[in-house]
Design a protein that fits this description.
The complex is a heterodimer of chains A (202) and B (1063). By secondary structure, chain A is an all-alpha fold. Chain A contains 8 helices and 2 strands. In chain B, the strands form 13 sheets. A 7-stranded mixed beta sheet of chain B has the order 6-5-19-18-17-7-9, with helices on both faces. The chains are: A mainly alpha (202), B alpha/beta (1063).
Chain lengths: 202, 1063
């Protein structure tokens, strides 16, 4: 029995020292960051993405590229593909990539991620944000949007329109064209539904 | 070739100190803190502070996520992007590809499509990224030492310029660095048009002025020359170092190595002759090296010309044709070789040689038909040519009080101007001085106005490379400290004041880019609005315009107005303007340069008394401009392997005659000036020569470079910028500690470096081809006569062996035949892998941290002319790694692709692994070298690589982060990795393409093909560690005629002293 008591004492001592060392036993809440005895190179004198900086005036370590510079692989001479516009500023009327099943599938997937919360799965502008937050959202099936050339839809995804912000950063140009193709598909489906539906229902 | 290699004189003599250093894995006091606090003392202190502070300081730091407010389209956090840009360096321009992590440049590579780099780089280019983040850079405009603003300067300049414009610019003077830039050239001519009376001086402490002057006197034109070493079969370097200290080092090394590699591959191998007094990197690569003082180069050249020049060149005047102490058979053999390779030979003279030598070299190259094939001449377009005479006349004008306003447009004349001109006193006579400088350096601290200079990675500019290729200097980041480029400063000064307030619409049309948000710590207080002239209150000086607009103004006529934007973007993207290289010029010779050279020798008379003094450019800090760069300061000199210092170099024989040993402090007296500095013994130097390396001894460089070394500019006069006679050394009864790395990690005389000759290699491979490789058998323990093809010893393993036959298996080869020992790989590795700088004292303790070191072995008599072999040694990534077996915590283990990996977090610092490593490539963090890294230097770190802490072992990882990035990219792109996708940092930087890396299981890969070469050998292969890094033996290509003469001379002069002969 002595050995068991010794064990218990050792255990109690360990627990007590843990409480002492960490300032808190398990389950204790604190607004302060956790104790971290062995730094173990968790925090290194280097700059990782999206971290704060003591040096730059705006406190951000990420710097915007210098205006006017061109990175390698970003020459973007194909203005139709990258802006949806011809050299003269006219929106292009046809998607400048081959539209096939793979592109539509990719477009559907990207649409689900980026567009569906507002525009809804059918593109009628009744997404979850509209339902809960009454955010006015455009329906793709309005006359004015049906008349948009492909390039203009691309431009809206890129730069935004009205309340909608631009998606040039999270969505690559390839994916933007995929979304354009999927939006066109949604419009065609809706037109087909409307054509086949009984009067008064769309 | 049964050679005995040695790394240092002490090692060769087997001195007790050297032995002690070798036998201790970790030097005495390894556990001591540098300030003399013992470990025990440290524990006491730590205990006290622990109990006092409790554990409050041990909380995990709070980190914040700071995303972009407006995210740029293509920038994905964590994915680096690359930009093409250009590093101007004097009149050279290096085309670069710079890696940028979230808008911060971190790593520099050569641009494969730019002719001056061809995808490679140099130590200096690699280290220039550290210069960007140097925390000691100047952060503000200064007026008499007090902080001022750019606007105040613009106003002050407006008043000054009005006064000067009124009298045509008399009293105004510009002292510029030499440059080659269309925009700077345009602005300079506009400046001259506005101030026709102004003085303009161009000065470079280390320049090719003599070469330009020589070519001018030979051809009557200002021409640049480009060496096509890849086309050359015979190369003669006269006191020249085209492979390292020449600004065109990268392209020269690329060409030379290409001609070098061709030999073992079965093609024509070039043969390099070097005639020089001080051991240079080029001399180290030479097949035949002749020790000859710099002043003897001219007689040597005359002797050579007498043998090769045609009669119509005035060869009659060259009669005699002997050089004292030089075996005429050496010159005969060289002349025969040059004549046999008309059109495919090349002669190059060093920049410190006088113009007459360069003129004669130009003439000889033309007579030998090399001009147009191996030596190409180009017009010096858009350039400010260096001219020390212009500095001298400027200084006399300053002393005479004729200069009211002096503009120092870059450069540091107070530090590096010739001592006899006394620039400091002259500058004190000038009422208004304006200095543009990266730091508040020697010149800026004496100037009335100081303007912080923008680094080339943070400002717009342009450059024309030697040969003509035009490129734009594209900034990677906004100026960290609000610096200004020379383009902006000269643009401000060259542009006349506008008569009317600037039309905002017109300005907006010129500057389509939005006004740039100012950056830097103090930026909000001092807004730097580049389109300031829009404000109706126009400063009198005229438009202070951003560099972007100024550079684009220059390029509009170059690219044409229609389609300008597309063309411009293409130039930015590609890093150069396609087909902008100038047409080659084949100059006509005017006069008789050879006869003139012969006459000048006759006039020179007898050899003067005293030692010859030679001024060398520093391969690290150049003329001192890189002095505050820790990477370069800690980079061992290629030959002496010294860090952090520049002692006077003498040959062992000279040292002996003067009673000196390495580290003795001497007083050097020369031309009425003197300085005190230590000496160092460099084998292979000419006797009677003392060589000083310039660029050290800065007083206002910053916390790294100030007070490092000794200022050799203090004794250099304007009449002899390269070399002179009449120096003397007096031993003072003091010594000075010097930190050399050459004794660290010796390999105890085992066959570490292997070399052969081309003829031996050919006969061996021919024999093998004839009777089959397996037929050559040798009894155990007997090496073949070549030493290169030593038989595999009997191997057995103590460990369970792994097959490593699945997936990718990474391996590396290093071709000792290509390697020129330039150190580019060391700095590239340091930049890529966040390798810390440890300082001079720690280097002396053997604690330098370079993951790849460059061993330099001498072979031969130290008092004679020893040969040199370089050997880069990174981690060998042994398949049966001895380090792994002894680690008690499995911190170093093998991965499935054959990498010997370090798990930093597991490492508890026993250092057993380092002790057990036969190659001594492991590096231990004795201290927390990176603990106090300034904020700006943290920006220079590679985010993809751990910054190691104290008590952690580290070593070469084969750039595992690069391997993984390429693997991820290939997988995302749905493709297979192909050979060449992955390049290690050292491989990518190497200008000699000596390093191959890839998958050894892929038989078509470059590394697998290299490993199949008969020259391939493993370092200490008999230990059966199965290193993944192997070496290709060095091959020399000696001239049989000289070999024969040498053997003859040795036989006849046995026992005699043959100074400077064939030894």
């Amino acid at each position: 029995m002595i050995s068991r008591r010794r064990h218990l004492r050792a255990l109690a001592l360990t627990l007590a020292s843990v409480v002492f060392l960490t300032g808190c036993a398990r389950g204790c809440t604190s607004s302060r960051p956790p104790i971290h005895i062995n730094p173990s190179m968790d925090n290194q004198p280097k700059v990782r993405p999206q971290t704060a900086s003591n040096f730059f005036y705006d406190g951000a370590s990420m710097r915007a590229p210098v205006p006017g510079t061109v990175a390698i692989g970003e020459l973007r001479e194909d203005t139709a593909f990258f802006t949806g516009q011809e050299a003269d500023g006219q929106f292009i009327t046809e998607i400048p990539v081959t539209v096939d099943e793979a592109l539509l599938e990719r477009g559907a997937q990207r649409y689900e991620i980026y567009c569906q919360p507002c525009h809804d799965a059918r593109g009628d502008g009744r997404g979850i944000l509209f339902q809960r937050g009454s955010v006015p959202t455009a329906s793709f099936h309005d006359e004015q949007y049906l008349a948009y050339p492909d390039g203009q839809i691309f431009d809206v995804i890129t730069n935004g329109l009205g309340l909608m912000s631009g998606y040039r950063w999270p969505i690559t140009p390839e994916d933007r064209w995929a979304i354009v193709s999927y939006v066109r598909q949604l419009q065609r489906e809706q037109l087909a539904r409307a054509a086949n539906a009984p009067p008064g229902i769309n | 070739v049964n050679e005995t290699y040695w790394r240092s004189l002490a090692q060769r003599e087997d001195s007790p100190e050297s032995r002690a250093f070798l036998e201790r894995e970790f030097q005495g006091g390894a556990s001591e803190l540098p300030e003399g606090i013992t470990r025990r003392g440290m524990m006491k202190l730590m205990g006290a502070s622990l109990s006092l502070a409790g554990l409050v300081g041990c909380r995990r730091p709070v980190e914040e996520i700071v995303p972009f407010v407006t995210a740029p389209e293509e920038l994905v956090p964590g994915i680096p992007r690359s930009y093409a840009t250009t590093m101007p360096f004097g009149r050279s321009a290096y085309g670069l590809i710079v890696e940028s992590h979230e808008g911060r440049p971190t790593k520099i590579e050569g641009n494969p499509s730019h002719p001056s780099t061809l995808g490679a780089s140099s130590a200096r280019v690699q280290a220039s990224v550290l210069g960007l983040y140097d925390p000691d850079r100047s952060q503000t405009v200064r007026l008499n030492g007090e902080a001022a603003s750019w606007d105040e300067f613009v106003t002050a300049w407006g008043e000054l310029s009005q006064a000067h414009a009124a009298n045509g610019g008399s009293g105004l003077a510009v002292l510029s660095e030499s440059f080659s830039s269309p925009t700077m050239a345009r602005l300079a001519s506009e400046f001259r048009a506005r101030y026709p009376e102004a003085l303009w001086a161009t000065y470079e402490a280390l320049s090719d002025e003599n070469r330009l002057a020589g070519v001018r006197s030979a051809t009557g034109r200002d021409l640049d020359l480009v060496l096509r070493l890849d086309e050359a079969n015979v190369i003669l370097a006269l006191d020249a170092d085209p492979l390292l200290t020449d600004p065109e080092t990268i392209r020269n090394a690329r060409g030379f190595a290409a001609g070098r590699r061709a030999g073992p591959a079965g093609g024509a191998m070039n043969r390099l002759y070097a005639v020089e007094g001080v051991y240079s990197l080029t001399g180290a690569m030479a097949d035949h090296r002749l020790r000859l003082e710099s002043r003897q180069i001219a007689p040597f050249l005359v002797a050579l010309a007498a043998r090769v020049a045609p009669t119509e060149a005035g060869a009659a005047a060259l009669a005699g044709g002997d050089v004292p102490d030089v075996d005429p058979r050496w010159i005969d053999a060289l002349a025969e070789d040059l004549l046999a390779n008309r059109g495919s030979g090349v002669i190059v003279a060093g920049e410190r040689q006088p113009p007459a030598v360069h003129a004669a070299v130009c003439a000889l190259n033309t007579y030998l038909g090399n001009t147009g094939t191996t030596v190409n001449y180009y017009e010096t377009t858009d350039a400010a040519l260096p001219n020390v005479g212009s500095l001298a006349s400027l200084v006399s004008a300053m002393q005479g009080g004729a200069v009211e306003t002096l503009v120092v447009l870059g450069g540091n004349p107070v530090f590096d101007a010739p001592a006899d001109l006394d620039f400091v006193a002259a500058m004190a006579q000038v009422p208004h001085s304006i200095a543009l400088g990266h730091a508040v350096d020697e010149t800026s601290s004496q100037a009335e106005w100081h303007i912080p200079r923008a680094h080339y990675l943070e400002g717009w500019g342009d450059a024309r490379a030697v040969g003509g290729a035009l490129s734009v200097v594209q900034p990677m980041i906004q100026p960290l400290f609000g610096g200004r480029t020379p383009v902006e400063v000269l643009g401000l000064m060259a542009t006349a004041a506008p008569v009317a307030p600037v039309d905002p619409v017109a300005v907006a049309a010129v500057a389509p880019v939005e006004p740039v948000a100012p950056e830097g710590p103090e930026a909000p207080a001092a807004p730097i609005d580049p389109v300031a002239p829009v404000v109706p209150v126009v400063p009198v000086a005229g438009p202070d315009r951003p560099g972007y607009d100024i550079v684009r103004d220059t390029w509009r006529p170059i690219l044409g107005d229609d389609d300008f934007e597309t063309q411009w973007n293409r130039v930015l993207h590609d890093g150069l303007l396609a087909d902008s290289e100038l047409p080659e010029v084949v100059p006509e010779l005017t006069g008789e340069p050879l006869a003139e050279l012969a006459r000048s020798i006759g006039a020179a008379g007898e050899s003067p008394d005293g030692l010859e003094i030679v001024f060398l450019p520093s391969p690290s800090v150049h003329d001192g401009r890189f002095a505050n760069d820790g990477w370069l300061q800690e980079l061992p000199d290629p030959l002496t392997k010294l860090t952090w210092d520049n002692p006077a170099l003498v040959s062992p024989t000279t040292a002996e005659s003067l009673g000196l040993t390495g580290g003795d402090v001497v007083r050097l007296d020369y031309a009425g000036r003197s300085m005190e500095l230590p000496v160092w013994l460099l084998p292979g130097m000419s006797d009677g020569v003392v060589a000083l390396t310039v660029g050290y001894g800065r007083s206002h460089a910053g916390r790294v470079g100030s007070g490092v070394g000794f200022n050799a500019f203090a004794v250099r006069g304007s009449q002899a910028l390269g070399f002179d006679s009449g120096a003397s050394l007096t031993r003072l009864e003091r010594t000075y500690p010097l930190s050399a790395t050459q004794e660290h990690g010796s390999m105890e005389g085992r066959p570490i470096v292997r070399e052969s000759t081309l003829t031996a290699l050919r006969s061996h491979t021919d024999a093998e081809d004839g009777e089959g490789a397996a037929a050559t058998e040798h009894p155990e323990g007997v090496t073949t006569p070549l030493g290169v093809f030593a038989e595999e010893p009997h191997l057995f393993s103590l460990f369970e062996e792994q097959a490593y036959d699945q997936g990718h298996q990474w391996g590396m080869t290093i071709d000792l035949n290509s390697c020129i020992g330039c150190n580019a790989c060391m700095v590239a590795c340091q930049s890529e892998n966040n390798v810390p700088v440890v300082g001079k004292t720690q280097v002396a303790n053997g604690r330098e941290m370079h993951w790849i070191r460059l061993d330099r072995y001498f072979s031969g008599e130290p008092s004679g002319n020893p040969e040199v072999v370089f050997q880069p040694v990174p981690c060998m990534h042994c398949e049966d790694a001895p380090c792994e077996q002894v680690c008690p915590v499995a911190a170093t283990v093998h991965d499935a692709e054959g990498l010997n990996v370090m798990v930093y977090n597991r490492c508890i610092g026993t250092r057993y692994c380092s002790n057990n490593c036969p190659y001594k490539v492991r590096r231990f963090n004795f201290f927390n070298y990176t603990k106090d890294t300034p904020d700006t230097l943290q920006l220079a770190m590679n985010p993809d690589v751990t910054v190691r802490s104290r008590g952690v072992m580290e070593k070469c990882t084969y750039c595992t982060q690069r391997i993984n990035r390429e693997k991820i990219d290939a997988r995302l792109g749905g493709r297979e990795l192909v050979d060449g996708d992955i390049k290690t940092a050292c491989q990518q930087a190497c200008p000699a393409s000596a390093i191959e890396f890839g998958d050894i299981l892929d038989a078509s890969s470059g590394v697998a093909r290299a490993k199949a070469d008969p020259r391939n050998y493993s370092l200490l292969g008999e230990l059966n560690t199965k290193p993944r890094t192997t070496y290709l033996a060095k091959v020399r290509n000696p001239n049989p005629a000289i070999e024969a003469a040498q053997a003859d001379a040795e036989a006849s002069h046995a026992g005699e002293e043959g100074r400077g002969s064939l030894a």
